Amino acid sequence: MEAIYKHPKSLVPVQTKYCPGCGHGVIHRIISELIDEMGLQGRSIITNPVGCSIWADLYFDFDSVQPPHGRTPAAATGIKRMLPDHLVICYQGDGDLAAIGTAEIIHAANRGEKFTTIFVNNAIYGMTGGQMAPTTLIGQKAATAPDGRDAEGEAGMGFPIKVCELLATLGGTKYLARGSVNNAVNARKTKGYIKKALEAQMRGEGFSLVEVLSACPTNWSMKPMESVEWLEQNMIPFYPLGEIKNTLAEVSK
Amino acid sequence: MAFKGRVEIDRERCKGCLLCVRACPTKVLAVSDTANSWGYYPAVQVAEDKCIACGNCYVVCPDVAITVYKLEGGSNA
Amino acid sequence: MPEEKKLMKGNEAIAEAALRAGCRAYFGYPITPQSEIPAYMARHMLDRGRVFIQAESETAAINMVYGAASTGARAMTSSSSPGVSLKQEGISYLCGADLPCVVINVQRSGPGLGGISPGQGDYFQSTRGGGHGDYYHLVLAPKSVQEAADLTYEAFALADKWRMPVMVLADGLIGQMMEGVVLPAELEISRLPVKPWAVGGQAASGRANNHVTSINLVPDELEAKVRERYRRYDEIRDAETRHEEINVEEADLILVGYGTSSRVAQGAMDLARAEGLKLGLFRPITLWPFPEARLAELAAKGKKFLVVEMSMGQMVEDVRLAADGKAEVHFFGRCGGNIPNEDEVLAAAKDVLAGRSTPFGRRPRGKR
Predict the structure, then answer these.
(1) Distance between CA atoms of A115 and A124, rounded to whole angstroms?
(2) Containing structural domain, residue A154
(3) At what angle do helices A72-82 and C58-70 cross, to 10 degrees?
(4) Selection from C28, C34, C145 nearest residue C81 by Cα
């Protein structure tokens, strides 16, 4: 009897603080599996952002750096420029990346920085209790949009942002993909995208980013099984899955 | 031809999200009727003979609470 | 072989001194009156195998420093007053994570966008911990191009020794003027000590994980960490406090100033001596830790103080605290980008000696 799917070595074997059904757990596991497969545990650094994944440093069994909110790509820039042979993962949520950190991600991407960004998009602010995010869908309710996101009406909340498509216009971006962890098929494809991105990084190519759609059962006020259905029916039609941009050198494609 | 498999679910790591129950194509898993020490009702293997070691449960589990084993020389064809 | 003296602009001397101190990473943004620093770094860092990035903002720059510093590299950023305001969050995080780095502030006048001429209105921001939370960091105040180069060079070693940001607080005059400077010898980066707390190189050393972070949600643990940091601040006060004093023992009135103000005050002191008036000069070089002990001694001896600043009065509060009610502390300041001249400082000193001046704290603030 052979264990064919088991706990990755570079993931700490403890119960996480993440809510039941939270996508962070799946994404953490995917990253750890890849780091094990690529033999990079002793040469990996993760920047854990402000947001629910502030706790990521408890779960990845390697070095970490925790920057101020939104500044994660700037800190990752400093780290990767000093340690170009290390695997640097810039892990961010939708507030960190697309609200307070909009300038930092655009310019890191534009400079073609060689770290990989994992952008966890759950269309809400988790840690602070369910406020509207830049990626909250029109009509979706949130603590600061109690009647639902109203893009152009009196409240003037603006539109949800498609980060991959936005960054695709920048010359420095080489690989931008959007995956999801709402079911097994999508989670497996997402691992494929992240693998391409990490391998590109280790070959010295960048900027790479994988956006991962994730459920937030707690702040969507749903049970986990409902939340992954909601994600499939509402988020995927708006945020299309797949490789949004791939201009990696031929060998990496 | 599919494999034969079995899963082990760490009762204390599981948070009872039941995404594995949803993901399993052969209905091997269900929710337990006893809570763990955290108060969660974990998922449990209820039909081991149906397991085809596809790994879907492992892939969707946010808590990496599941280990999937492939059994020797069997098939569920 | 001793280096020959060169005529250099203050900003460029600061930049070159940083390179020679082993600065591996510089991240900056243009802002008058310090834009020569990023320009110099852009020209000289790549050839010497270092990293230069013109960041998208001063905020991004300090956070790039945070990342580079976490790997143990010597890293620096520079800006002027409004840009240093943007860095305060990053500085709080650097202090909370005990990371070394160097921050150059070439002060201009404020508040807000203010003017581009020199000022000293960032004293509070620099010495009171301008960002949120309980912290301090070393603040060094040069008065000349030579001292700006020397203190910048030394700042990296102090930052590494005490695991904190070290700020070099200059002003637009020092940044822009040209004076003779003998630059320090270039350090060999590979000979700098390895930092056991830094991230990176884990496979080679086999050590446990390093987590650079400032969060702690357990009050007792966070309090213990902050108190331990303050014990380090006590050690820094004992080991690193610096000032310069001229003629203070025989003086009736001691002029107190730092940076450009101290040079003007020194000029006024020389003019006064020619007229037979006994003025002295006390020049703090570390603004944090502030040389309060020596000032307290002088206050107890019955000296009067006239604090001269290019602001509405910031360091003067520290002088009052040090004097602890035992001495009169008077103030003369210009702001808006105006630099006091020796004649007006001398006139203010004469007012104090003649009893025509109201001590700071009892006089209306808006009066010149």
Answers:
(1) 25
(2) 23-252
(3) 50
(4) C34
Which residue is closest to C213 within chain A, CA to CA?
A66
Q: How many residues does chain B have?
A: 77
Residue A82 lies in a domain: yes
Q: Which amino acid is at C196?
A: P
Peptide bond into C118 cis (omega under 30): no
Chain A: closest CA distance from residue B32 (Å): 15
pLDDT over 70 at A170, yes or no: yes
Alpha-carbon distance of B69 to C92, in angstroms, equals 50
* Nearest CB to C68; choose among A63, A78, A107: A78
Q: Looking at chain C from residue 24 to 43, which residues have their Cβ under 8 Å from any Cβ of chain A?
A: 24-25, 27
Task: Go through the domains of chain B in sequence order and give each one's CATH number.
Answer: 3-72 (3.30.70.20)
Tokens of B32: 């337990």
B70 touching A (Cβ < 8 Å): yes
Complex ipTM value: 0.95
Q: What CATH number does residue A37 fall under?
A: 3.40.50.970
CA distance A210 to chain B (A): 18
Looking at the domain assignment, is residue A51 inside a domain?
yes
Kindly tell me if the per-residue pLDDT of A253 is higher than 80: no
pLDDT, tens digit, for every residue of A191-215? 999 999 999 999 999 899 999 999 9
How far apart CA C256 and CA A98 sit, in angstroms, is 49
The answer to whether the Cβ–Cβ distance between C63 and A78 falls below 8 Å is yes
Q: In the beta sheet, which residues pair with residue C307?
A: C256, C331
The matching CATH number, chosen from 3.40.50.970, 1.20.1250.20, 3.40.190.170, 3.40.30.10, for C6-191 is 3.40.50.970
Total domains in chain A come to 1
| pLDDT tens, residue by residue, A35-87 | 999 999 999 999 999 999 999 999 999 999 999 999 999 999 999 999 999 99
According to the CATH classification, is domain C246-353 in 3.90.950.10?
no
Mind listing the pLDDT tens digit for each residue in C233-242?
999 999 999 9
pLDDT tens digits, one per residue of C35-61 = 999 999 999 999 999 999 999 999 999
pLDDT at C170: 98
Task: Give domain status of residue A235, yes or no.
Answer: yes
pLDDT digits (tens, 9 = 90+) for C99-152: 999 999 999 999 999 999 999 999 999 999 899 999 999 999 999 999 999 999
CA distance C47 to chain A (A): 16
Domain boundaries, chain C: 6-191, 246-353
Backbone dihedral angles phi then psi of residue A91, each to the nearest 5 degrees: -100, 120
Whether C6-191 shares its CATH topology with C246-353 is answered yes
Tens digit of each residue's pLDDT (9 = 90 or more) over A77-94: 999 999 999 999 999 999
Is the peptide bond prior to C33 cis by the omega test (within 30 degrees of 0)? yes
Are A26 and B58 within 8 A, CB to CB?
no
